[in-house]
Amino acid sequence: MFKVQFFQWFQLKRKSIFIGMFMGLLVFAWFSLIQLIPDRIQISDPSKLTLGQNLPVSYQWKDEEEVFAGGTSDTYKLNCRFLGIIPVKSVTVQVVDEQQVIPAGTTAGILLEMDGVYVVDTSEIEDVSGKFQDPASHIVKPGDYIKAVNKTAVSTKEDLSKAVASCKGEDLILTLVRNGEQMDCKIKPVKTGEDDYKIGLWVKDDLAGVGTITYIDEQGRFGALGHGISSSETQQLISLSSGKLYQSDIVAVNKGKKGTPGELVGMIYYTSDNYFGNIQYNSQAGIFGRLENASDELADMEAIPVAYKQEIETGPAQIQCNVDGEIQKYDIEIEEVNINSKNKNKSMLIHVTDERLLNKTGGIVQGMSGSPIIQNGKLIGAVTHVMVNDPTEGYGIFAETMLEETEKCA
Protein backbone atom coordinates (compact mmCIF):
# COMPACT_ATOMS: atom_id res chain seq x y z
CA MET A 1 0.00 0.00 0.00
CA PHE A 2 2.77 2.40 0.96
CA LYS A 3 4.67 1.64 -2.27
CA VAL A 4 1.55 2.38 -4.35
CA GLN A 5 0.97 5.72 -2.57
CA PHE A 6 4.62 6.69 -2.95
CA PHE A 7 4.53 5.81 -6.64
CA GLN A 8 1.41 7.94 -7.16
CA TRP A 9 2.96 10.82 -5.22
CA PHE A 10 6.16 10.56 -7.26
CA GLN A 11 4.24 10.51 -10.54
CA LEU A 12 2.31 13.64 -9.51
CA LYS A 13 5.49 15.42 -8.45
CA ARG A 14 7.25 14.43 -11.64
CA LYS A 15 4.44 15.96 -13.70
CA SER A 16 4.64 19.15 -11.65
CA ILE A 17 8.42 19.32 -12.08
CA PHE A 18 8.10 18.70 -15.81
CA ILE A 19 5.43 21.39 -16.18
CA GLY A 20 7.56 23.82 -14.14
CA MET A 21 10.64 23.16 -16.26
CA PHE A 22 8.62 23.49 -19.47
CA MET A 23 7.17 26.83 -18.34
CA GLY A 24 10.64 28.02 -17.30
CA LEU A 25 11.99 27.18 -20.75
CA LEU A 26 9.12 29.07 -22.38
CA VAL A 27 9.81 32.15 -20.24
CA PHE A 28 13.54 31.95 -21.02
CA ALA A 29 12.84 31.58 -24.76
CA TRP A 30 10.41 34.52 -24.63
CA PHE A 31 12.87 36.88 -22.98
CA SER A 32 15.64 35.66 -25.28
CA LEU A 33 13.47 36.54 -28.26
CA ILE A 34 12.82 40.00 -26.85
CA GLN A 35 16.58 40.53 -26.49
CA LEU A 36 17.15 39.53 -30.11
CA ILE A 37 14.80 42.26 -31.31
CA PRO A 38 16.43 45.71 -31.28
CA ASP A 39 14.92 48.44 -29.12
CA ARG A 40 15.81 51.10 -31.68
CA ILE A 41 17.13 51.02 -35.23
CA GLN A 42 18.15 53.44 -37.94
CA ILE A 43 17.38 52.85 -41.58
CA SER A 44 17.79 54.84 -44.78
CA ASP A 45 15.26 52.94 -46.93
CA PRO A 46 12.08 51.76 -45.10
CA SER A 47 11.23 49.41 -47.96
CA LYS A 48 14.37 47.35 -47.12
CA LEU A 49 13.54 46.98 -43.44
CA THR A 50 15.01 44.05 -41.55
CA LEU A 51 15.38 43.38 -37.84
CA GLY A 52 18.21 40.90 -38.04
CA GLN A 53 18.74 37.26 -38.90
CA ASN A 54 16.01 34.61 -38.83
CA LEU A 55 13.71 36.09 -36.21
CA PRO A 56 10.35 34.27 -35.86
CA VAL A 57 8.43 37.54 -35.84
CA SER A 58 6.43 39.56 -38.30
CA TYR A 59 6.32 43.34 -38.09
CA GLN A 60 4.08 46.12 -39.24
CA TRP A 61 4.46 49.89 -39.30
CA LYS A 62 2.17 51.69 -36.90
CA ASP A 63 1.80 54.53 -39.42
CA GLU A 64 2.68 52.78 -42.67
CA GLU A 65 1.07 55.34 -44.98
CA GLU A 66 2.97 58.19 -43.34
CA VAL A 67 6.27 56.28 -43.52
CA PHE A 68 6.10 55.64 -47.25
CA ALA A 69 4.58 59.01 -48.01
CA GLY A 70 7.66 60.66 -46.48
CA GLY A 71 5.90 62.15 -43.47
CA THR A 72 7.13 65.14 -41.52
CA SER A 73 8.45 62.93 -38.70
CA ASP A 74 11.67 60.93 -39.03
CA THR A 75 10.86 58.56 -36.15
CA TYR A 76 8.22 55.83 -36.33
CA LYS A 77 7.04 52.76 -34.44
CA LEU A 78 7.20 49.19 -35.64
CA ASN A 79 4.96 46.59 -33.99
CA CYS A 80 6.43 43.07 -33.79
CA ARG A 81 4.35 39.90 -33.35
CA PHE A 82 5.45 36.35 -32.64
CA LEU A 83 4.23 34.06 -35.44
CA GLY A 84 2.18 37.02 -36.63
CA ILE A 85 -0.23 36.71 -33.67
CA ILE A 86 1.23 37.48 -30.23
CA PRO A 87 2.50 41.06 -29.64
CA VAL A 88 6.16 40.97 -28.61
CA LYS A 89 7.76 44.37 -28.82
CA SER A 90 7.49 47.88 -30.24
CA VAL A 91 10.64 49.07 -32.02
CA THR A 92 11.55 52.73 -32.53
CA VAL A 93 12.70 53.27 -36.12
CA GLN A 94 14.56 56.40 -37.17
CA VAL A 95 14.64 57.07 -40.92
CA VAL A 96 17.95 58.72 -41.81
CA ASP A 97 19.89 59.66 -44.92
CA GLU A 98 22.26 57.01 -46.21
CA GLN A 99 25.76 57.63 -44.91
CA GLN A 100 29.03 56.95 -46.65
CA VAL A 101 32.49 57.11 -45.10
CA ILE A 102 36.05 56.28 -46.04
CA PRO A 103 37.21 53.20 -44.09
CA ALA A 104 40.72 54.12 -42.98
CA GLY A 105 42.61 51.45 -41.05
CA THR A 106 45.70 53.61 -40.82
CA THR A 107 47.69 53.89 -37.60
CA ALA A 108 48.25 57.26 -35.98
CA GLY A 109 50.20 58.69 -33.11
CA ILE A 110 47.77 60.00 -30.50
CA LEU A 111 48.64 62.79 -28.06
CA LEU A 112 46.03 63.85 -25.50
CA GLU A 113 46.43 66.90 -23.31
CA MET A 114 44.36 66.51 -20.16
CA ASP A 115 41.86 69.04 -18.90
CA GLY A 116 43.97 69.94 -15.87
CA VAL A 117 46.71 68.11 -13.98
CA TYR A 118 45.60 64.51 -13.50
CA VAL A 119 46.21 62.84 -10.13
CA VAL A 120 47.53 59.30 -10.46
CA ASP A 121 48.07 58.65 -6.74
CA THR A 122 49.21 60.09 -3.42
CA SER A 123 52.41 59.10 -1.65
CA GLU A 124 54.38 59.50 1.55
CA ILE A 125 57.30 61.94 1.59
CA GLU A 126 60.16 62.37 4.03
CA ASP A 127 60.34 65.77 5.74
CA VAL A 128 63.48 67.58 6.90
CA SER A 129 63.36 65.82 10.28
CA GLY A 130 63.32 62.35 8.72
CA LYS A 131 59.63 61.67 9.41
CA PHE A 132 57.30 60.36 6.68
CA GLN A 133 54.11 62.28 5.99
CA ASP A 134 51.28 61.90 3.47
CA PRO A 135 49.80 65.41 3.21
CA ALA A 136 47.40 64.67 0.33
CA SER A 137 45.96 61.40 1.70
CA HIS A 138 42.17 61.48 2.19
CA ILE A 139 42.11 64.95 0.62
CA VAL A 140 43.06 64.39 -3.01
CA LYS A 141 42.03 61.17 -4.77
CA PRO A 142 43.33 59.31 -7.84
CA GLY A 143 41.31 60.48 -10.83
CA ASP A 144 41.01 64.10 -9.63
CA TYR A 145 41.93 66.93 -11.99
CA ILE A 146 43.77 69.87 -10.42
CA LYS A 147 42.56 73.01 -12.18
CA ALA A 148 44.04 75.76 -10.00
CA VAL A 149 46.31 76.45 -7.03
CA ASN A 150 45.34 79.42 -4.85
CA LYS A 151 42.88 80.44 -7.59
CA THR A 152 45.64 80.55 -10.24
CA ALA A 153 44.98 78.17 -13.13
CA VAL A 154 47.35 75.27 -13.72
CA SER A 155 47.35 73.01 -16.75
CA THR A 156 50.72 71.24 -16.65
CA LYS A 157 52.89 69.39 -14.17
CA GLU A 158 55.35 72.28 -14.40
CA ASP A 159 52.64 74.77 -13.40
CA LEU A 160 51.81 72.69 -10.34
CA SER A 161 55.47 72.23 -9.35
CA LYS A 162 56.13 75.98 -9.55
CA ALA A 163 53.06 76.75 -7.42
CA VAL A 164 54.16 74.29 -4.71
CA ALA A 165 57.79 75.45 -4.84
CA SER A 166 56.79 79.08 -4.24
CA CYS A 167 54.37 78.41 -1.35
CA LYS A 168 56.93 79.18 1.44
CA GLY A 169 55.25 76.55 3.59
CA GLU A 170 51.84 78.21 3.59
CA ASP A 171 48.65 76.20 3.04
CA LEU A 172 47.65 75.64 -0.57
CA ILE A 173 44.08 75.74 -1.86
CA LEU A 174 43.68 73.26 -4.70
CA THR A 175 40.70 73.58 -7.02
CA LEU A 176 39.76 70.06 -8.12
CA VAL A 177 37.29 68.47 -10.48
CA ARG A 178 36.12 65.09 -9.18
CA ASN A 179 33.48 63.08 -11.07
CA GLY A 180 32.44 66.22 -12.90
CA GLU A 181 32.04 68.35 -9.78
CA GLN A 182 34.37 71.21 -8.84
CA MET A 183 35.56 71.65 -5.25
CA ASP A 184 38.31 73.35 -3.23
CA CYS A 185 40.52 71.62 -0.71
CA LYS A 186 43.35 72.74 1.59
CA ILE A 187 46.73 71.00 1.78
CA LYS A 188 49.64 71.73 4.12
CA PRO A 189 52.92 71.37 2.15
CA VAL A 190 55.72 69.37 3.76
CA LYS A 191 59.18 70.92 4.02
CA THR A 192 61.71 68.49 2.57
CA GLY A 193 64.77 70.73 2.40
CA GLU A 194 66.02 74.29 2.37
CA ASP A 195 63.17 76.26 0.77
CA ASP A 196 61.89 72.97 -0.73
CA TYR A 197 58.27 71.83 -0.28
CA LYS A 198 56.21 68.91 -1.58
CA ILE A 199 52.58 67.79 -1.33
CA GLY A 200 53.01 64.07 -2.12
CA LEU A 201 51.23 63.68 -5.46
CA TRP A 202 51.97 61.57 -8.54
CA VAL A 203 50.51 63.46 -11.51
CA LYS A 204 50.53 63.64 -15.30
CA ASP A 205 49.15 66.06 -17.86
CA ASP A 206 49.18 64.12 -21.15
CA LEU A 207 48.95 60.65 -22.67
CA ALA A 208 50.48 59.30 -25.86
CA GLY A 209 50.17 56.10 -27.86
CA VAL A 210 49.39 54.44 -31.16
CA GLY A 211 45.88 53.62 -32.40
CA THR A 212 43.92 53.06 -35.59
CA ILE A 213 41.63 55.49 -37.38
CA THR A 214 38.35 53.81 -38.27
CA TYR A 215 36.75 56.17 -40.80
CA ILE A 216 36.61 59.67 -42.24
CA ASP A 217 33.24 61.18 -43.12
CA GLU A 218 32.41 63.55 -45.97
CA GLN A 219 33.02 66.57 -43.72
CA GLY A 220 36.54 65.47 -42.85
CA ARG A 221 35.64 64.27 -39.37
CA PHE A 222 37.12 61.01 -38.10
CA GLY A 223 36.35 58.30 -35.59
CA ALA A 224 39.10 56.11 -34.10
CA LEU A 225 39.84 53.34 -31.57
CA GLY A 226 36.23 52.22 -30.99
CA HIS A 227 36.74 52.67 -27.25
CA GLY A 228 37.62 55.60 -25.04
CA ILE A 229 41.06 56.42 -23.69
CA SER A 230 41.18 55.79 -19.95
CA SER A 231 43.82 56.13 -17.26
CA SER A 232 45.66 52.84 -16.76
CA GLU A 233 45.81 53.57 -13.02
CA THR A 234 42.16 54.41 -12.32
CA GLN A 235 40.40 53.08 -15.45
CA GLN A 236 38.53 56.40 -15.67
CA LEU A 237 37.80 58.00 -19.01
CA ILE A 238 40.28 60.83 -19.57
CA SER A 239 38.86 64.35 -19.71
CA LEU A 240 40.85 66.17 -22.37
CA SER A 241 41.45 69.81 -23.15
CA SER A 242 42.86 69.08 -26.61
CA GLY A 243 44.45 66.34 -28.62
CA LYS A 244 46.40 65.81 -31.79
CA LEU A 245 47.07 63.10 -34.37
CA TYR A 246 50.54 62.61 -35.80
CA GLN A 247 51.98 60.41 -38.51
CA SER A 248 53.46 57.20 -37.14
CA ASP A 249 55.29 54.16 -38.47
CA ILE A 250 54.94 50.59 -37.22
CA VAL A 251 58.48 49.48 -36.40
CA ALA A 252 57.76 46.13 -34.72
CA VAL A 253 54.98 43.73 -33.76
CA ASN A 254 54.85 41.85 -30.49
CA LYS A 255 52.71 38.84 -31.33
CA GLY A 256 49.79 38.02 -29.09
CA LYS A 257 49.58 34.68 -27.34
CA LYS A 258 47.33 33.08 -24.75
CA GLY A 259 47.40 35.14 -21.57
CA THR A 260 49.60 37.89 -23.06
CA PRO A 261 48.13 40.50 -25.41
CA GLY A 262 50.45 41.58 -28.21
CA GLU A 263 50.97 45.11 -29.48
CA LEU A 264 52.00 47.21 -32.44
CA VAL A 265 55.15 49.15 -31.64
CA GLY A 266 55.03 52.52 -33.34
CA MET A 267 57.36 55.43 -33.90
CA ILE A 268 55.48 58.73 -33.52
CA TYR A 269 56.83 61.93 -35.05
CA TYR A 270 55.73 64.87 -32.89
CA THR A 271 56.56 67.63 -35.35
CA SER A 272 54.37 70.16 -37.12
CA ASP A 273 55.16 68.53 -40.48
CA ASN A 274 53.66 65.24 -39.26
CA TYR A 275 50.57 66.68 -37.56
CA PHE A 276 47.40 65.73 -39.43
CA GLY A 277 44.37 66.11 -37.19
CA ASN A 278 42.90 67.42 -33.96
CA ILE A 279 41.06 65.36 -31.36
CA GLN A 280 37.97 67.08 -30.00
CA TYR A 281 36.16 64.39 -28.06
CA ASN A 282 36.97 61.30 -25.99
CA SER A 283 34.01 59.03 -25.24
CA GLN A 284 33.30 55.38 -24.46
CA ALA A 285 32.87 54.82 -28.22
CA GLY A 286 36.29 56.18 -29.19
CA ILE A 287 38.06 59.42 -29.99
CA PHE A 288 36.67 61.87 -32.53
CA GLY A 289 37.80 65.01 -34.30
CA ARG A 290 38.75 66.44 -37.66
CA LEU A 291 41.56 65.62 -40.07
CA GLU A 292 43.49 68.55 -41.47
CA ASN A 293 46.34 67.08 -43.51
CA ALA A 294 45.25 63.64 -44.70
CA SER A 295 47.94 61.51 -46.29
CA ASP A 296 47.84 60.68 -50.01
CA GLU A 297 47.01 57.08 -49.05
CA LEU A 298 43.83 58.18 -47.25
CA ALA A 299 42.93 60.78 -49.88
CA ASP A 300 42.94 58.10 -52.60
CA MET A 301 40.56 55.78 -50.74
CA GLU A 302 36.93 55.48 -51.82
CA ALA A 303 33.91 55.94 -49.59
CA ILE A 304 31.58 53.01 -48.86
CA PRO A 305 28.08 52.86 -47.31
CA VAL A 306 27.56 52.38 -43.58
CA ALA A 307 25.56 49.31 -42.52
CA TYR A 308 23.26 49.56 -39.54
CA LYS A 309 23.30 46.95 -36.79
CA GLN A 310 20.24 45.05 -38.02
CA GLU A 311 21.99 44.48 -41.37
CA ILE A 312 25.01 42.74 -39.84
CA GLU A 313 25.17 38.98 -40.33
CA THR A 314 27.14 36.24 -38.65
CA GLY A 315 29.64 34.91 -41.12
CA PRO A 316 32.56 36.18 -43.23
CA ALA A 317 33.80 39.77 -43.00
CA GLN A 318 37.09 41.65 -43.18
CA ILE A 319 39.11 44.02 -41.04
CA GLN A 320 41.29 46.71 -42.58
CA CYS A 321 44.48 47.64 -40.76
CA ASN A 322 48.16 48.48 -40.98
CA VAL A 323 50.43 46.07 -39.15
CA ASP A 324 53.50 46.16 -41.42
CA GLY A 325 53.57 49.57 -43.11
CA GLU A 326 50.73 48.93 -45.55
CA ILE A 327 46.95 49.08 -45.15
CA GLN A 328 45.47 45.68 -46.03
CA LYS A 329 42.25 43.72 -45.61
CA TYR A 330 42.24 40.48 -43.60
CA ASP A 331 39.53 37.83 -43.33
CA ILE A 332 37.58 37.37 -40.11
CA GLU A 333 34.38 35.65 -39.02
CA ILE A 334 31.54 37.45 -37.23
CA GLU A 335 30.55 34.86 -34.61
CA GLU A 336 27.93 36.81 -32.64
CA VAL A 337 25.94 40.02 -33.07
CA ASN A 338 24.52 41.40 -29.82
CA ILE A 339 22.03 43.90 -31.17
CA ASN A 340 20.97 45.17 -27.71
CA SER A 341 24.35 44.96 -26.01
CA LYS A 342 24.60 46.96 -22.79
CA ASN A 343 28.35 47.28 -23.41
CA LYS A 344 28.60 49.25 -26.67
CA ASN A 345 32.26 48.21 -27.10
CA LYS A 346 31.30 44.52 -27.18
CA SER A 347 28.45 44.44 -29.67
CA MET A 348 30.11 41.87 -31.95
CA LEU A 349 32.27 38.83 -31.31
CA ILE A 350 34.84 38.34 -34.07
CA HIS A 351 37.38 35.65 -34.92
CA VAL A 352 40.48 36.18 -37.09
CA THR A 353 40.77 33.50 -39.77
CA ASP A 354 43.32 35.04 -42.14
CA GLU A 355 46.61 33.12 -41.93
CA ARG A 356 48.58 36.18 -43.08
CA LEU A 357 47.45 38.21 -40.08
CA LEU A 358 47.80 35.28 -37.69
CA ASN A 359 51.40 34.81 -38.81
CA LYS A 360 52.16 38.53 -38.35
CA THR A 361 50.40 39.31 -35.09
CA GLY A 362 48.86 36.12 -33.69
CA GLY A 363 45.44 37.75 -34.10
CA ILE A 364 44.26 41.01 -32.55
CA VAL A 365 46.87 43.10 -30.73
CA GLN A 366 46.97 46.47 -28.98
CA GLY A 367 47.17 49.26 -31.53
CA MET A 368 44.65 47.54 -33.82
CA SER A 369 41.72 48.97 -31.87
CA GLY A 370 39.69 51.02 -34.32
CA SER A 371 40.43 48.82 -37.34
CA PRO A 372 37.34 49.08 -39.57
CA ILE A 373 35.20 45.95 -40.01
CA ILE A 374 33.70 45.57 -43.47
CA GLN A 375 30.97 43.17 -44.58
CA ASN A 376 29.17 43.01 -47.94
CA GLY A 377 30.89 46.19 -49.08
CA LYS A 378 29.71 48.22 -46.08
CA LEU A 379 31.36 49.51 -42.92
CA ILE A 380 29.72 47.67 -40.01
CA GLY A 381 31.99 48.55 -37.09
CA ALA A 382 35.46 48.59 -35.59
CA VAL A 383 37.69 46.26 -33.57
CA THR A 384 37.75 47.22 -29.88
CA HIS A 385 39.20 44.49 -27.63
CA VAL A 386 41.08 41.22 -27.79
CA MET A 387 40.32 38.10 -25.79
CA VAL A 388 43.34 37.78 -23.47
CA ASN A 389 43.13 33.99 -23.44
CA ASP A 390 42.68 33.76 -27.22
CA PRO A 391 44.19 36.55 -29.36
CA THR A 392 42.44 35.21 -32.45
CA GLU A 393 39.14 36.43 -30.97
CA GLY A 394 37.93 39.84 -29.91
CA TYR A 395 35.08 42.31 -29.84
CA GLY A 396 33.76 45.05 -32.06
CA ILE A 397 31.55 48.13 -31.84
CA PHE A 398 28.80 49.05 -34.32
CA ALA A 399 29.72 51.73 -36.86
CA GLU A 400 26.45 53.58 -36.21
CA THR A 401 27.38 53.92 -32.53
CA MET A 402 30.63 55.65 -33.44
CA LEU A 403 28.97 57.86 -36.06
CA GLU A 404 26.51 59.16 -33.48
CA GLU A 405 29.48 60.42 -31.46
CA THR A 406 31.04 62.01 -34.55
CA GLU A 407 28.05 64.34 -34.77
CA LYS A 408 29.22 65.98 -31.53
CA CYS A 409 32.36 67.27 -33.25
CA ALA A 410 32.49 70.79 -34.66
Brief account:
The protein has 410 residues and is of the alpha+beta class. The protein has helices at 2-36, 64-68, 157-165, 296-299, 355-361, 399-406, and strands at 40-43, 57-61, 75-82, 86-95, 100-103, 107-122, 125-126, 132-133, 145-149, 152-153, 172-178, 181-187, 190-193, 196-198, 201-217, 221-224, 240-246, 248-254, 263-268, 275-283, 286-291, 304-305, 315-322, 327-337, 348-352, 372-375, 378-387, 390-398.
Task: Looking at this protein, list some descriptive labels.
410 residues, alpha+beta, Thrombin, subunit H, Pdz3 Domain, 3 domains, 6-stranded antiparallel barrel, 6 helices, globular
What's the layout of helices and strands?
Elements: H1 2-36, E1 40-43, E2 57-61, H2 64-68, E3 75-82, E4 86-95, E5 100-103, E6 107-122, E7 125-126, E8 132-133, E9 145-149, E10 152-153, H3 157-165, E11 172-178, E12 181-187, E13 190-193, E14 196-198, E15 201-217, E16 221-224, E17 240-246, E18 248-254, E19 263-268, E20 275-283, E21 286-291, H4 296-299, E22 304-305, E23 315-322, E24 327-337, E25 348-352, H5 355-361, E26 372-375, E27 378-387, E28 390-398, H6 399-406
